[in-house]
Automatic annotation (TrEMBL):
SUPFAM superfamilies: 2Fe-2S ferredoxin-like, Ferredoxin reductase-like, C-terminal NADP-linked domain, Riboflavin synthase domain-like. Its cofactor is FAD. This is Oxidoreductase. It comes from Mucilaginibacter hurinus. Residues 1-103 form the FAD-binding FR-type domain. Keywords: 2Fe-2S, FAD, Flavoprotein, Iron, Iron-sulfur, Metal-binding, Oxidoreductase. Residues 262-346 form the 2Fe-2S ferredoxin-type domain. PANTHER family: 1,2-PHENYLACETYL-COA EPOXIDASE, SUBUNIT E, NADH OXIDOREDUCTASE HCR. GO terms for molecular function: 2 iron, 2 sulfur cluster binding; flavin adenine dinucleotide binding; metal ion binding; oxidoreductase activity. Pfam families: FAD_binding_6, Fer2, NAD_binding_1.
Amino acid sequence: MYKKYKIVRKVKESSLVYSLYLEPLDGAVTEPFLPGQHLMFRFTIPGSDIPLFRYYSFSEIYDPKFYRVSIKKEGVVSSYIFDHLQVGEIVEAKGPQGTFALEVEKDHPVALFAGGIGITPLLSMAKAIALINPARRVALFYGVNDRDNHSFKEEVSALKAYPNIQVHTFYNNVTPADVAGADYDYQGFIDLNLLHSDFKDAQSGYYICGPAPMMHFVENSLLERGVDANQIHMESFASLAAPEETETEVAAGAEGDTTGKEAIKIYYNREGRELEWDSRYRSILEFSEAHDIEIVSGCLFGDCGTCLTTLMKGEVKYMHPTMIEPAAGDCLPCSCVPVTDIVLDV
């Protein structure tokens, strides 16, 4: 169920990142979440006559009074948030959701690899461990393009005060004004050779979030080092797999071009409902959400498999690559659209 939240603070974290501080409009306490999880937002914005859905990760530890989510400007929805949403306005979201989550109380070492805006869920993880389980070994690797894209600089730097936490910050582009050891630690790409020997523990956990090339590089490097694939957890953001629409694409989608096309129907078997597919939506999941049919999901990119659904009849096509490969007879509604009439076991 979607809840209403009031924006009580809006903080610029870097040139293209804002954080929103959200309080429940009804005055209730916020629902607890695991570090790494997110909220699913539903927006109605100018230029689009259908609701637009986005996931934004918690970037702070849990607080019963408010949530903090952080957003990078890179598409029509994030641009609307960045340029137009103001303190005092109301947004709708549901959750917490997501399987890219850390159990803070465990004792085994954990390594966190962040690229750009991928720092948001990993910052929540690192800060939660610092507060709740300060004896747990943590290594945080954070790569950004340059100082203008260095979000949460002070918060990340503050983690170095904890003896159990190693922080390594990498700048791709260094200027004469950048000071090694203060602004950044290393120039270039994330270097896994900096991992402490503690991470030879076979039960160490590895969490990766960032641009696709960076994630695959880190994943492959870990596998080459003999890390069990089950210990590696990855999450991609919209910019990695399912880019946000541009204003032109939203406007084009709003026109709903169906000329010469036969209507496609989606039948929801357990719901007992049949709906005509609307091609303005990016996925079956978003179309279903807009019609009050819930398909439980953990991402919007086919990373986690939470939304895996039996496709009882018909064909779908995928709008972007997915980490999960559904078996024949299954589909990932978060990442596909129908190409024929379909029947879902929903």
